[in-house]
Amino acid sequence: xxxxxxxxxxxxxxxxxxxxLFGSEAWAERTVLSEIENPFTHYxxxxxxxxxxxxxxxxxxxxxxxxxxxxxxxxxxxxxxYGKLLLEWLMDRALQLGAEQVVLEVRADNDRAVGLYNKFxxxxxxxxxxxxxxxxxxxxVMRVQVxxxxxxxxxxxxxxxxxxxxxxxxxxxxxxxxxxxxxxxxGGVVPEVAARAHLEAFEPTLQRALDEAxxxxxxxxxxxxxxxxxxxxxLMVGIGAAKGLSLAHNKPLYAVNHLVGHVGAxxxxxxxxxxxxxxxxxxxxxxxxxxxRDLLEDVEFLGETIDDAAxxxxxxxxxxxxxxxxxxxxxxxxxxxxNPKAVRFPRGLSxxxxxxxxxFDFSFSGLKTAVxxxxxxxxxxxxxxxxxxxxxxxxxxxxxxxLTKAIAACEMYDVPRLLLGGGVVANARLRQVAxxxxxxxxxxxxxxxxxxxxxxxxxxxxxxxxxxxxGKAPSSIGFGAESTLDVTQVQTH
Length: 493
Ligand code: KG4
Ligand code: ZN
Fold this sequence. Notes:
Blueprint: E1 2-5, H1 11-22, H2 29-37, E2 41-48, E3 50-58, E4 65-73, H3 82-96, E5 101-107, H4 111-119, E6 123-132, E7 137-145, E8 150-155, E9 160-167, E10 170-178, H5 180-183, H6 191-213, E11 222-228, H7 232-249, E12 253-257, H8 258-270, E13 277-282, E14 287-294, E15 298-304, H9 310-320, H10 327-335, H11 355-358, H12 365-380, H13 387-412, E16 417-421, H14 428-441, E17 444-446, H15 450-453, H16 457-469, E18 491-492
Parallel strand pairs: 4-5, 8-11, 11-12, 13-16, 16-17
Antiparallel strand pairs: 1-2, 2-3, 3-4, 5-7, 6-7, 8-9, 9-10, 12-18, 13-14, 14-15
Helix pairs in contact: 1-2, 6-7, 8-16, 9-10, 9-12, 9-13, 10-13, 13-14
Bound molecules: 5'-O-[(R)-(carboxyoxy)(hydroxy)phosphoryl]adenosine and zinc ion.
5'-O-[(R)-(carboxyoxy)(hydroxy)phosphoryl]adenosine is lined by residues 158-159, 283-285, 311-312, 314-315, 326-329, 332, 422-424, 426-427, 454-455.
């Protein structure tokens, strides 16, 4: 006996059982096929020799609700608990999909089915008179609540102290403290300063998150913490806090990958990440291109920066132009009035010779140097440079190379989706060119709201919740900070 997801190939076997059980009220073949092929349904079959039972669930992402479409067991296979097995599978799947309730309709005269649903906690909430035709039998509408796990997520990989709380796929709180101002006078994030700032900010940020969610720490079911990649000293503060909370309150602890967290943020907005997707993560600390086939099981690394991160390049070029830290928003603002074609700055790792080894890698240090040379040369010659023109030309080079590679990855892997994440996503030109080029190429573009794009605790909580909902075991308490954690490792055990 085995359980398998149904495909179009199983329609004939389903029809045989349908007709045998339901006669004139059986579904039509095309209904069965469209049910199985609907992207929001989940159909499972029990096979024992051939198909002996099947069941289906429908859940539209972000509806937080699931409907049981059918449960059927062939006449000759009844009394073997197959119905219970199918219902257990549907309830597990509803949990994984983030449903907070499961609803169904059942024939009022089907005592056996009603009894099974009662055992699983379903209660009648409505009655639909003469719902089934032609028999005219009433339908009972039944419902059961699903307890989605409450997960608290902690983020401390760089200069943001984030504590987020989710319940399943639902965002409850996203409290943040940034130490950015403390780094301003150094022109970039200073690891020791960031670590000390996390230490000071953690307690108040935790309290704010709990207040925002309206819960106490006792109500949390699990704790998740980003254990890398990031700054070692900063990571250690978040991990120490997470371990302390886990031990003191006896909560399971999950060590999760920060980069995958950026992808998981999308779950909180639309109830799912449409997969597969290419993800382009651009911030002050990272520039990564990923192919995500499964959020928990299959994240492939395609490329990353071999020197500066995209945001770092903005910050360094801003300094060259005499603009304050963080430079990204400053450059973005003055570039608005500049000519992006004024100076042709280099596009790193974009030459044919780079395609073999660095097709999906990035390099911004040559670009930064080119901008510095351009400014120096003008100074030596005593010429005025147009800061808006330089800023616009620099921004154009960064945006061009980021999107050329991201879209090439979509095309190479035949993935018609692109998800953006990280603080550089605030960039106006990046958003504009991404929208234009994705539309041209028939690629669906996803940009989560900005508070979920920048480093935050909710995205870490979201991955933690996915792990809990999918029955994954917690991490053992011995894990440490992994400043260069590989993106393929979603959870550290
Ligand atoms: O994700 P994020 O908030 O955190 C860290 O990486 O720590 O990203 C911050 C980075 C900074 O380098 C900042 O200059 C850059 O994102 N950034 C921008 C813009 N807004 C922020 N870069 C380009 N254009 C922007 N509008
Ligand atoms: Zn990040």
